[in-house]
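Quick one before lunch.
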Amino acid sequence: MSTALRQIQYWHACWLGELAPDEVHVYSTSLDWPDASLAWTGSWLSDTEQARARQLVDPIKRNRFSAARASLRWLLAKYLDQPPQEVVIQYEPGGKPYVPGVHFNVSHSHDRALIAITRACAVGVDVEFIDQHVPYWQVAEVAFTSQEREALSAIPVGRQRQVFYQMWTGKEALLKAYGGKLDIYLKGESSGGEVQEVPPYRILPLSLEECWAGAIALTNPPSAVNLRYGALV
Ligand SMILES: CC(C)(COP(=O)(O)OP(=O)(O)OC[C@H]1O[C@@H](n2cnc3c(N)ncnc32)[C@H](O)[C@@H]1OP(=O)(O)O)[C@@H](O)C(=O)NCCC(=O)NCCS
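Model of the coenzyme A complex:
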């Protein structure tokens, strides 16, 4: 049996099953695939997606983009009960991809992607590799509100980087849940904006392996949310 076929068969076993109304399924997927798997799944991508992949000069980035889209298409196909190549991904004016019938969002960092899927409400997800060289206080000065900076400075220095990434991914996930429309709120006071009133939302940190931080955000969420994790590898 080919490597690609084995991979897809394995994915079927990894699927978390139908979504209950209060559930969010969060899948982690590795993006460094063997050529055979990329070739097998490449035809699932739309012409626009294939053109986007071709524009990426770096072969690693190109292959990771294609792998992320193929994973997304395979998952959406399972939830929508359609073949992956027939899933029509559309885009909100701010660029957020969507499909009728289920809410989803994707985030990638290095060789990993997270895909969050729910029927409950709009969702955003963000994942980041915790880079030990990023001057996180410089980023916080620009991107965090004064309350957020105060909260970060109250954390013991040895844990600040981890907490910074947790806060950052929560903000990014929220931005993505709203499709990028919460610019002023997210960028913080240093960019001259007031903290913006936003509709109800909930940010949930994700339990990921060491060196990774991630969060999902839900807009107008149900009172209880059941988060379930899956992995496509
Ligand atoms: C849209 C945005 C949020 C994506 O974030 P990112 O960290 O660059 O990238 P991620 O890997 O997390 O997400 C990319 C995916 O999000 C999705 N996406 C694209 N535009 C989106 C939008 N407007 N809203 C939600 N999701 C979006 C796509 O699926 C995309 O995957 P693709 O490139 O394979 O199509 C980013 O481009 C952006 O505008 N960031 C604003 C930065 C900022 O001000 N942050 C403040 C937080 S402190």
